[in-house]
Amino acid sequence: MLLQQIMESEGVMLQHNRTSGVILSNQSLVLQKVSRPSAGNYSCKAVNEQGVGFSNEVRLEIMYAPACQTELSGSDAVILAASRSEDVNISCEMDALPNNLKFYWTHTNTVGENSDLASEIYSNDGSRSLLRYHIRSEEDFGTILCWASNSIGNAERPCVYQLVPA
User: Fold this and answer.
1) Locate the Ig-like domain: which residues (predicted)?
2) Are residues 83 and 13 in the same domain?
């Protein structure tokens, strides 16, 4: 006869709380309103007069659209100083799951004109993209934006890089 059943997430005992979306019922765990912090390893511990038994852990992953890593660290824009005739390498990293991302880059020059940057000048590797940008004239300074998308959706905001004369 089952005396006690304990559900755990990352080793922390879960409490039944319908308001927060944790429902323990009939030897089952129901999670509602899941979000990124809900991800982790879940397990069950059962206790009866014979002893204690443990279930295998089940990994819960929450998929989400890309978010700029510099934005996650609280930075609004990365300032990059460069000179004319210089190549600038800009690395853009996104946090996402799944992390097989499609990237695209845009540039707003000092006159305020927007343009998409050619895919030939950047490379992608999972959650990171590397742009090799050549500064030819004063108009090449300005703002460069890195955008990404995955099967869940598009980044709400881009990674922002401000190119200024050195």
Assistant:
1) 66-151
2) no
